[in-house]
Design goal:
There is one protein chain. The chain is mainly alpha-helical. 47% of the residues lie in helices and 10% in strands. It contains nine helices and five strands. A three-stranded antiparallel sheet has the order 1-2-3. Strands 4-5 form a two-stranded antiparallel ribbon. It is globular. Mean pLDDT is 85; it is low at 168-199.
Amino acid sequence: MIHAIAAITMLAQQCAPEIATEAVVPLVVTESGGDDLAININKGPRVHAASIADGAALVRRYMAAGYTVDVGLAQVNSANFARLGVSIEQAFDPCTNLRLASSMLRAGYDLAIQHYTGLDAISATYSLYNTGTLTRGFRNGYVGRIWSAASHMGTIQTPPPIPGSPSATVLTVSPAKPAADNDSWVVGQIASSAVEVFR
């Protein structure tokens, strides 16, 4: 089923309340276009599932062949299933999928804030989600696509500069600091042309 942005927003609020919907929804739109049966075989063929059972069978087949597979609304990678304690079928459930993505974003943000501040930290979090590194997602265009989706949805007026890109005037790097267990982040509109991260 393909979910509209309003439905993704409601699911994010319900299933991943610890992460701002303004951060989750553009990620989902970028990752799956709102398709809760979306499957991406990394470095493999394109496939599409007709049902959760069909999707789970495809995922098992390609995992057995040595591939990693991205699953569901937020395209959670199969390499994370065991660590996150979910079955393949559970990973296709929209609410579970968003909860898993939220957990991964949260952990990524905790790492990103040790090296970046403000919107750069959120960009690094998206990079980590996509590539497993804080910066490769800047170079492959992924972070830019998420900010572009956020801009098109009206979450932000204009996408921020990507750290390290020619258009980025200043890369804000902060010294490493321990992340508090109750750190949370929310993206909110504070002026017609600015977005700020609140803690």
